[in-house]
Design brief:
Blueprint: H1 5-13, E1 18-23, E2 28-31, H2 33-39, H3 43-46, H4 72-79, E3 83-90, E4 96-107, E5 113-122, H5 130-138, H6 151-168, E6 172-179, H7 182-189, H8 191-206, E7 214-219, E8 222-228, H9 232-247, E9 250-252, E10 257-259, E11 262-268, H10 275-291, E12 297-300
Parallel strand pairs: 11-12
Antiparallel strand pairs: 1-2, 1-5, 3-4, 4-5, 6-8, 6-11, 7-8, 9-10
């Protein structure tokens, strides 16, 4: 059987991973169905553009933009060696998606560079599967807008985690966060865009934590993250990662880009704590961050 270009494309369009090709000038010449599903960008929106246009705006966990510096594809094309990296791409809806990318340079029979192929696969926490979401929805524990845990479910899980801390000493940390200047976003761009910012933020947070962590919407523009089995120092590091990734997320509207920042209060349960004192401390630390200028983390053991 002879295989032509059309058949190759059919094969690749049935691959669940994202696959795209660039030529030697880093112009995107092919974008498969898997790439469309993972990124939200259709092939006609991407093919013909350059990687230098930074459509996916890859960043690492420190928020560093890779397309303008340590781009795996650019490095692979430079030394003709394959690369692998864990990065966060920009979804068309604005949020960050954690993916593992594999980049392989392509050369002709004489060894001259022809281009590059990149494959990428989502690396989401197992807790984000559709069965989990459906179960929360049935129990009325899912926030209808952001599709993450609501306050009712957060309170149940927090009480359970606090009991494990009290009985067995399992470390329990809280990250309490709030979108900065959210009223201004609503007033400037309207409530539909405001809702989109909430959904974008929720997805960035939930897709950037460990499988054992729980992210939920506490109310309004406030989010709570329940963290177990980490020291206060590592909980603060997690909050720092989330702050950077939220800051690097953005929505594309007809006229402009809309982004948001968050302020985080980070604390850990103490022996003398009650649930109320633990939450009050996390809330106080978050508002202290607001007073200090926003888009920051304030932590206290």
């Amino acid at each position: 059987m002879q295989i032509n270009d059309s058949m190759y494309k059919q094969f690749l369009d049935h691959v669940h991973d994202g696959v795209y090709f660039v030529d030697a000038q880093r112009t995107i010449v092919y974008w498969n169905k898997g790439a469309e599903l993972i990124t939200g960008y259709q092939a006609q929106e991407v093919v013909g553009s350059s990687c230098a246009d930074n459509i996916l705006v890859h960043v690492d966990e420190y928020g560093q933009e890779l397309c303008t510096g340590f781009c795996p594809m650019l490095l692979a094309m430079g030394d003709m060696k394959s690369r692998q990296a864990d990065v966060f791409l920009h979804h068309k809806d604005g949020h960050r998606v954690p993916v593992t990318v594999h980049v392989t340079p392509i050369h002709d029979d004489l060894g001259a560079l022809m281009g590059c192929v990149e494959t990428f696969r989502e690396s989401l926490p197992p807790s984000l599967d559709q069965h989990y979401i459906a179960e929360l929805e049935k129990a009325s524990m899912l926030d209808p807008l952001t599709q993450i845990a609501n306050r009712r479910y957060l309170e149940i899980r927090l009480a359970s985690a606090f009991e494990e801390f009290r009985r067995y000493g399992v470390p329990l940390g809280l990250i309490f966060s709030d979108i900065d200047h959210f009223k201004s976003i609503n007033d400037t761009f309207g409530h539909i865009v405001g809702d989109d910012v909430l959904k974008m933020t929720a997805k960035t947070l939930t897709q950037s934590v460990r499988a054992t962590d729980l992210v939920g919407r506490w109310g309004g523009e406030e989010f709570l993250i329940i963290v177990t089995h980490l020291t206060i120092q590592n909980t603060e590091k997690l909050a720092a990662k989330l702050r950077r990734l939220v800051e690097k997320s953005f929505l594309s509207t007809k006229s402009t880009f809309v982004s948001a920042t968050m302020t985080f209060g980070v604390t850990q349960a103490r022996r003398e704590d009650t649930l109320e004192s633990l939450m009050e401390r996390a809330d106080r630390l978050m508002y202290l961050g607001k007073e200090q200028g926003r888009n920051r983390i304030v932590a206290e053991p």
